[in-house]
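Final report, Chapter 2: Outcomes

The project's central promise was a pipeline that accepts a single protein chain and returns its three-dimensional structure in a standardized token representation, suitable for archiving and comparison. That pipeline is now operational. To close this chapter, we reproduce one record exactly as it appears in the project archive, with the input sequence first and the structure output second.
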Amino acid sequence: MKSIAVCAMLALACQAQQDDPLQILLRIRHQMADSINRMPRYLCTESVERKTYRMSVSGRGKQLTSCADISMAREHAQAKTKLTSADRLHVDVTVSGDTEVYSWVGAGELGDRSLDEIVHDGTTATGTFRGLLQSIFVSDAASVQFKDRAELAGRPVLNYAFNVPLERSRYMISNGKERRVTAYSGAFSVDAQSLALLKLEIHADELASELAMCSVESQLDYAQVKLHNVDFPLPSEVNMRIVGAKGTESDNRTVFTACHEFVGESTLIVGEEKTDGPRVPAQPDIELPAGLTLTVALTHKIDPATAAAGDLVVGRLRREVLVPGTGLTIPPGTKLVGRITELLEQYDFENVMTLGLKWESIEFSGIKRSLRLALHSDIPGTAKMDEVQTKSVGGEGLFILIDVPGKYQIPAGFAAEWVTLAGKID
């Protein structure tokens, strides 16, 4: 009988140890470290929806201009927000170790550019793949405490809280001009059975005054994604909210899709139709002299309700182009492939739409060749707008449409004159 009682007591002790939240936390840390160490290089597509708001006091129209004013108005339910701008982004991110490398979606080539180098304006967020998980679960940066047991979407979960002080933090926040490391805290939820990470919440603490921000909060949803026939925790959606000290609010929603192991560069072929018959024999490589004018018209409309920066666009030459000294004529209808680099709608005082375009390749004589163009001007009337301002930044052309009507779409046939930049087409 004593032997049975001892065994029963040992079993209960073993079960109690297994149910001990601190012991479970050790298993979570070990499981996360193993996942991070084994995780192969992989690529995901990010679809980002960004919105900004201006905050004011309800009923007075007085804009809030300090964190104290914002806190007071929210405490008394007097804060009112007005949408001031909206845009979307489509980018690819490749993760290898602690490094995140970005490119426009489907570009098929990945260098060493950061997200800020691709997306010049607006709020962006990085580090959601490995950096945060490494700091919270693997290193000794975070102090973690058990909160409670609960249910999330009908499944039992364990909830923990954590805190990372400034001296141990690697959490970088930028307002576009200033970059500062900040302390942060938050909470996470894991599946009670598999211990898989389900949700992570992060709150920036002690924000530097140079950032001019009142709060930065992020909520991350995780899913198990199979890579190398092994499940790894990858983010599926991230919602980030930044409240600025001058009464602005930025909301970013990022959805991650098509995550897969990245094994090398890929080639993307974009076309409208298949060409019947034999191809024209290839011409020798040529150099386009600087200053040639190409009039390019969009073949399809651009709808801001669905389109995003990063999406591909197709254009056609309206007029033939003679290449001096070569005897080569590029005929009208020649196909160009480019990309939307910006598609921003602003509603603050008057409706303004900014369209950024960059042409990347031209296809003639049976060969698809790289291309560098600078914007010269738009063709009046093709935007069906009374006023269009233009600006050229390197190989990117910006079209600023003033007083845009509701649900406006950039029409097919929208045309502009572009000028070749010196260099080889290939």
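Archive annotation: The domain at 21-261 is CATH 2.50.20 (outer membrane lipoprotein receptor (LolB), chain A).
This record, like all others produced under the grant, will remain available to the consortium after the project formally closes.
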